[in-house]
Amino acid sequence: MTADTVPAIDVRAVTKQFGSLQALKGVDLQVERGEFFGLLGPNGAGKSTLIGIISGLVRASGGSVSVMGHDVSRDFRHARRALGVVPQELVFDPFFKVIDTLRLQAGYYGCGREARPWIDELLERLELTDKRNATMRGLSGGMKRRVLIAQALVHRPPVVVLDEPTAGVDVELRRTLWTFARELHAAGHTIVLTTHYLEEAEDLCSRVAIVDRGAVRVVSTTRDLLARHPFRFLRVTLSGAGLPAHLQSQAEACADDTWELKLDRKTQPIGNVIEELRQAGCRLEDIATREPSLEDVFVELTDKESQPDAA
Amino acid sequence: MQPDHRGLLTVVQKEVRRFWSVVGQTVTAPVITALLFLLVFSHVLEGRDSGYPGVAYTQFLVPGLMMMQVLQNAFANTSSSIAQSKIMGNMVFLLMAPLSARDLFVGYIVAALLRSTLVAAVIFVVTWPIVGLPVSHPFALLAILLLAAGSMGSLGIIAGVIANKFDHIAAFQNFLIMPLTFLSGVFYSVHGLPDFWFEASLFNPFFYMIDGFRYGFFGVADVSIWRSLAWSLGFFALSSGIAIAWLASGYRLRA
Fold it and tell me: What is the ipTM of this complex?
């Protein structure tokens, strides 16, 4: 494997035990250079533990992790210089102004005065220029979030991890952040995103991994994952007779007389279903179809009732 | 400059700026406390025999007060910084940075040394017109100062790592630092104590730091300077060893 083909992040057989709880059960994951990669999963799935191990905040019980070919334990200095992490929580040091926070952060990574033009550019691009001399404690939540992003980027890391960066931010800031994330990706950064907003992952990520109960359930391109989903959805508003009994198990009521039917792509052609409805005496007032979203796939894969434990 | 060195220097810079941003609390207040002790004790006990030939009690008192503030401020600097960073969550910026346990340890200790030395130096300068302290053995003075600040800075790291709330730091200060300081001969020569308390004082590492510090000024002390240096060095080795081991293992810092 040449230096250019080494994955941006290489996670191999990583386990993590917290007392009697096995938080990660032998996770294998490779994020290629230049990818916009989504790490999805319900609360408590192990995403934050995995990111913690990659960034050095959590020590793995077993396995190995490397960032740009540098082992996060044995070669931690190079691994951490290659990585910028935007933490999930709004954490800050109340003693410092925004500009001091960023300059100190650059210093931790060995960057001196030469980083100052880049810090000024980050302030500009994140619309923080007029806040450069504001104290951290005086900033709004959204502004603090922007500073966290700037902190993760001050040392120009090739790999950027965004750990739920839009949690609790308003719509405008969310759009600004995603535009910025796209620009970073276009500039050659590898981006790893965790989010609960699955439509964001669908929009932004070329590949996603779905993590559940400490194991990676699936890693796939977003397109393949959606295409592999065996269902599609038919939304109907009916009058006359009600929904036939044999379709009710796969229907979800949306409003009075409006149902969304989850249809098997292979065995339930939409034409057949419409014909069944007519034969049952239903009058179709309205009809619409939709393809499955990432959220549908996510629910399918993380449904605890239907999925056996991978461990 | 090597990136690793710049990282270490930045930790020092951050810690110094942190205490300097509240200089009234971190430097001025301890100086005033020491001056108040000096004012009260010198007024009440002036004329009392210091136990040191040719050394007035007020003169005797000043090195003890200086060292008392060195001990307390070195501890306070590291313990409050780490505890606050843990409680507020901003410790992650240091833990995710390419900094080794050695970088963190040296960064915290150098800042603690600078703060405590600054406090001691201001007390020395302010009391100079009143007591005019001689400096008989500057190297012994410097060695004890470094070991004392290093030891207490290390103990502060240990306390900060253990602490999950500020109460834990206060417990260290109230139930360990303060009793050991007051029973270490800040205000008296231990030769004036009853036998039991004299013997007990010989197991208090703070006593050797204060006694050795006095030797640096007056050239005389309750025990040999070599014994004080050995105890101070031993205490530093123990406390710094634990602090570095905990920073390296990530104990109570990394999950």
Answer: 0.88
